[in-house]
Amino acid sequence: AVGAVAVAGGVLHRHGDSVDVPKPKRVADRLRPGEAIAFRFPGDDDRAVGVRLKDGTLVGYSAVCTHLACAVLWREDRGSEGELYCPCHEGVFDARTGEVTAGPPPRPLPKVLLVEEIDGSVWAVATTRSGEGVKAAMCRQFGEQ
Ligand code: FES
């Protein structure tokens, strides 16, 4: 196994974040710039969304709106990078950060850490409840930069 995909299940606590490290899940064979994929992670009932931003950055979030838990959708054609949109009460989240940019949601979207394998496949490997710092916490835990 390669890199973070080999991570075993468990829970990390770093600098106030609660970072869950469930069993990694392959969510896409490939994700091209501007593309998004809906998947379930970490459980079969947990809606999530992964996006490859136009500059190549991979981002992943819970797709459960932090307002009243409607399903959040990807809208590629909004703003410079696209956005995550909740149709229930017009909540909008920044695609790069998950921060709320419009509407009633009280908190950012929790993050789902995505990693890309050497074959181009995309894996979900961790989540955070706080919406902050999952990548930094993972890198500290596994000694990466
Ligand atoms: Fe998403 Fe209200 S449930 S904005």
UniProtKB/TrEMBL annotation:
The keyword Secreted appears for this protein: no
Residue ranges constituting the Rieske domain according to the UniProt record: 23-124
Phylogenetic lineage: Bacteria, Bacillati, Actinomycetota, Actinomycetes, Kitasatosporales
Keyword vocabulary terms for this entry: 2Fe-2S, Disulfide bond, Iron, Iron-sulfur, Metal-binding
Taxonomy, superkingdom: Bacteria
Entry function: Iron-sulfur subunit of the cytochrome bc1 complex, an essential component of the respiratory electron transport chain required for ATP synthesis. The bc1 complex catalyzes the oxidation of menaquinol and the reduction of cytochrome c in the respiratory chain. The bc1 complex operates through a Q-cycle mechanism that couples electron transfer to generation of the proton gradient that drives ATP synthesis.
Protein name: Cytochrome bc1 complex Rieske iron-sulfur subunit
Cofactor dependence: [2Fe-2S] cluster
